[in-house]
Amino acid sequence: MFRLQGSKVLAVEMTGDAVKAKNGSMVAYDGDMAFKKLSGGGDGIRGMVTRRLTGEQMTVMEVKGRGVCWFADRAAEINLVGLQGDTLYVESSNLLATDGGLRTGTSFTGLRGASQGNGLFTTTVEGHGQAAIMSDGPAVLLRVAPQYPLTVDPGAYVAHQGNLRQSLQSGVTFRTLLGEGGGEAFQMRFEGDGLVYVQPSERNTIAGDV
Questions:
Q1: Gene3D superfamilies given for it (predicted)?
Q2: pLDDT digits (tens, 9 = 90+) for 97-118
Q3: CA distance 147 to 97
């Protein structure tokens, strides 16, 4: 069972089951635990090859045992997401831990631009169980409805779930509107019905200044 201890530490109570977590994120445990590094984000050779081709990096460990294990990463804020057979799309750097039974993979989310032909990829988590995602500062959960599409700066994007269509818009960005942009960049647009998690800070993205 996943529970938050404060806003920056994840406590997982284990009774012989397993959990997958970001490699090196264990900060303490009690009881009897075994740790094993997984290849390709826990998806075996196929997942490792896919991630190598897409350039997405996610090193995962499996923790199995009885007791309580605590996880954290660079004092990031942690958010719990419950999955009921649906799919969570999350940036690999923002994924802290998942129930051992949840499946992880890689989803292609579009091209940055036809001229460069660079692709963007997102980690997927699907099944029944809990996932813990991280954000730089308290995450903001935004609702997308059919009549209310949402546009997000990719540097602030953390994750999304629900029946959403995602598209990329290149050219005009928030910063170029203010005269601060430089180089090709894009925005992420979501349409449909679902939830989008954003963080109150921006990471560097491969799309240039956004």
A1: Mitochondrial biogenesis AIM24
A2: 999 999 988 876 654 433 333 3
A3: 33
